[in-house]
């Protein structure tokens, strides 16, 4: 075996997409100066947990972390997938932090992936589990991912700070490769659907959020339906909280989503939580804010919301050597970083054409020709 050549990177930014692209492109990386000047230097618990997750779904990957956690060496292995896997995501980030890279890896595994993830299902930092089910999975289907075997089940909900949520994810293998797409027409909004949830608080919080959201949305569109999902007992996790996820469905099959969750912050003293309920954002305010946020995403235009831009660009880059064209609203910071890392790891460059009249951006690329070479050939 020859000496391993490492791509050198610096800083803690975009660690997930760096590790994901390194795994897909089979490029070894070394990342230095990970929060070297911070009060608490080095990798955070959720980043270490993500590395452990990679070790579970990949064979022969090598992870080396120095004593201070400020330097990481990663040599990718073969994406295996596998059935009946279990991973505890911890409580420093939600399960969704792990889901986006995991579903992409699962598509190109040697075997279909079924995994049970434990931790926080809903928080204000990452997309909620509901958003993944209603929005992220349909985006995959646009690229030819089989609908059969693609599933996300919510076994129990859990919010910060203690979590207690659990989901079951199933991802099928891509038969050979994804399919290139032309996806530029977002259409007109025809209906809005949503899910509100509450754990260890009164169901009245959900009713208040829904009433407030409908107060803003109903004057604009009559077809608005928001379901309630009140959890109790073991299915309610270990902390009180509530939240809501809204999805706008369009005439051309696009789904634009926003969500939020309200709970006590991580690391707080958990004593007397019941007496601190007043510190949480009122449910009425949550409903109004999330409805306004959805209108903002719709106004921005594009076939996906700002949260899903990075995933959209990555899927385009992993397509066969054919042209894909997509349209998005204003580029999000994460979307921009995703484009840069896709260029560095996969050699795929996007041609961007801003449309001044709509404020949207058309992006075109020639796919990398990525194929699922690790799958079992029957």
UniProtKB/TrEMBL annotation:
SUPFAM superfamilies: EPT/RTPC-like. PROSITE patterns: RTC. Residues 185-299 form the RNA 3'-terminal phosphate cyclase insert domain. It is found in: Nucleus, Nucleolus. Keywords: Nucleus, Ribosome biogenesis. The keyword Nucleus applies. Residues 8-351 form the RNA 3'-terminal phosphate cyclase domain. It comes from the Eukaryota. The keyword Acetylation does not apply. GO terms for cellular component: nucleolus. Pfam families: RTC, RTC_insert. GO terms for biological process: endonucleolytic cleavage of tricistronic rRNA transcript (SSU-rRNA, 5.8S rRNA, LSU-rRNA). CDD domains: RNA_Cyclase_Class_I. Belongs to the RNA 3'-terminal cyclase family. Type 2 subfamily. This is RNA 3'-terminal phosphate cyclase-like protein.
């Amino acid at each position: 075996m020859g000496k391993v050549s490492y791509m050198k990177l610096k800083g803690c930014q975009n660690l997930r997409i760096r590790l994901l692209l390194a795994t897909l492109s089979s490029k070894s990386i070394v990342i230095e100066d990970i929060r070297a000047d911070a009060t608490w230097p080095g990798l955070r618990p959720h980043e270490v947990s993500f590395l452990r997750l990679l070790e579970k779904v990949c064979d022969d990957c090598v992870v080396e972390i120095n004593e201070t956690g400020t330097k990481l060496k990663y040599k990718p292995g073969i994406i295996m997938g596998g059935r009946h896997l279990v991973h505890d995501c911890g409580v420093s980030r939600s399960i969704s932090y792990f889901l986006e890279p995991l579903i992409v890896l699962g598509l190109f595994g040697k075997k279909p992936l079924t995994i049970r993830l434990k931790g926080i299902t809903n928080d204000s930092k990452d997309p909620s589990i509901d958003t993944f089910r209603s929005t992220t999975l349909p985006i995959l289907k646009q690229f030819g991912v089989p609908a059969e075997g693609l599933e996300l089940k919510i076994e129990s909900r859990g919010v910060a700070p203690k979590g207690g949520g659990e989901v079951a994810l199933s991802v099928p293998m891509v038969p050979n490769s994804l399919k290139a797409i032309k996806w530029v027409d977002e259409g007109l909004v025809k209906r809005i659907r949503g899910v509100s949830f509450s754990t260890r608080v009164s169901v009245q919080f959900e009713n208040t959020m829904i009433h407030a959201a409908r107060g803003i949305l109903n004057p604009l569109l009559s077809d608005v339906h928001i379901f309630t999902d009140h959890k109790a007992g073991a299915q309610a996790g270990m902390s009180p909280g509530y939240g809501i996820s809204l999805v706008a469905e369009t005439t051309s099959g696009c789904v634009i989503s926003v969500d939020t969750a309200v709970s006590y912050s991580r690391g707080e003293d958990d004593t007397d939580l019941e007496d601190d309920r007043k510190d949480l954002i009122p449910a009425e305010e949550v409903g109004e804010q999330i409805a306004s946020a959805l209108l903002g995403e719709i106004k921005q235009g594009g076939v996906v919301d700002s949260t899903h831009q990075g995933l959209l660009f990555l899927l385009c880059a992993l397509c066969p050597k054919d042209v894909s064209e997509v349209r998005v609203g204003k580029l999000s910071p994460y979307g921009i970083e995703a484009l840069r890392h896709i260029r560095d790891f996969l050699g795929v460059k996007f041609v961007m054409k801003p449309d001044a009249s709509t404020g949207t951006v058309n992006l075109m690329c020639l796919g990398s020709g990525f194929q699922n070479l690790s799958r079992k050939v029957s």
